[in-house]
Amino acid sequence: MWNTLWPMALVVLANVVYQVCAKSVPEAMDPFASLTVTYLVGAAASAALFFILNRGGSLFSEYGKLNWASIVLGVVIVGLEVGWIFAYKAGWQVSTAFIVQSAFIAAALLLMGYLLYHETLTWNKVIGVAICLIGLFFINR
User: Which of 84, 92, 99, 131 is deepest in the core (most CB within 10 A)?
Assistant: First the structure.
């Protein structure tokens, strides 16, 4: 049970702190300049955690296992991060912005899961996404 719960708890905690940080980037600061610091800290933290959790591990050996996903993920993360920063600079509220994007992501991932990974598409899932999208109407009124 713990192996199932702790990753989700980490995602929730990290997302809450992430949203607060993204909204707190100074208005006058260029988001890309801010992200250079973000990614340098992230790279250092990732390297430190790699060596802490993999005693005697070799980063270069691991780099030999790379595929397209790590590279595309890097580009996509920049889009994600800068999108959030610009959304908050445009006036989105923390209390609604995440809910709006989460509902649309749920709908998109339901479709992607079905098309790319052959995950089961049930009426319960479709109705759940429809309810989320209807909820967006009420949240944004």
Answer: 84
Give the span between the Cα atoms of 76 and 84, in whole angstroms: 12
CA dihedral sign of residues 93, 17, 80, 123: negative
Q: What 3-state class would DSSP assign to 58? A: coil
From the number of C-beta atoms within 10 Å of its C-beta (0-12, 13-18, 19+), residue 22 rates as buried
CB atoms inside a 10 Å sphere around CB 64: 8
Q: What is the pTM of this model?
A: 0.84
Q: Rounded to whole angstroms, how far apart are CA atoms 20 and 14? A: 10
pLDDT band at 103 (very low <50, low <70, confident <90, very high): confident
> Looking at residue 28, what DSSP letter applies?
T
Alpha-carbon torsion 95, 108, 134, 121, what sign? negative
